[in-house]
Design goal:
Chain B: Pfam families: DUF2922. The complex is a heterodimer of chains A (74) and B (70). Chain A is α+β, with helices and mostly antiparallel strands. Chain A has one helix and three strands, in the order E-E-H-E. In chain A, a hairpin with a 5-residue loop joins strand 1 and strand 2. Chain B is α+β, with helices and mostly antiparallel strands. In chain B, a hairpin with a 4-residue loop joins strand 1 and strand 2. Chain B has one domain. The chains are: A alpha+beta (74), B alpha+beta (70).
Chain lengths: 74, 70
């Protein structure tokens, strides 16, 4: 049995620090940008995310990419 | 006051596609925003239903003022 993964969607996630909570702990929030091309190179997604992150005020904790694919039994 | 930076592109299909960024930096210059927009077009990272993003239409900052009454 061979199962193939067929890429469907991809999105870019930018994790930022958004203030502190009542206990003084930093609060993390994720900003997501969907409609990323499945075929886009990781380096390009990273560069664009970095560019977007530079335009906003919050400190950036991390940049990630989330791919989703269907599993098909071939 | 909540602010949002909206970057408006035109896709190959002729439709406008908007990318919104919450909490933009104060005093963003047109050059800074244009650089990022040009980069987005050059790298073709995003897809839209009407084709690739091909042109910059405009960049604007939207401010939303909410007053709590109760």
């Amino acid at each position: 049995m061979a199962v193939n993964k067929v890429p469907q969607t991809s999105k870019m996630l930018i994790t930022i620090e958004n203030g502190v909570n009542a206990n003084g702990q930093p609060v993390q929030r994720q900003r997501s940008y969907k409609n990323v091309k499945v075929s886009a190179a990781d380096a390009d997604v990273y560069a664009v995310a970095q560019g977007i992150a530079d335009l906003q005020t919050h400190a950036v904790i991390g940049i990630s990419r989330q791919d989703e694919g269907n599993l098909v039994n071939a | 006051m909540a602010k949002t930076l909206e970057m408006v592109f035109r896709s190959e299909g002729g439709k406008e596609v908007t990318l919104s960024i919450a909490d933009p930096k104060e005093n963003l210059t047109l050059a800074e925003v244009t650089t990022v927009m040009e980069d987005i077009i050059a790298k073709q990272v995003f897809e839209s239903k009407t084709g690739d993003l091909s042109q910059i239409v405009e960049a604007r900052i939207n401010s939303k003022d909410t007053a709590v009454l109760v």
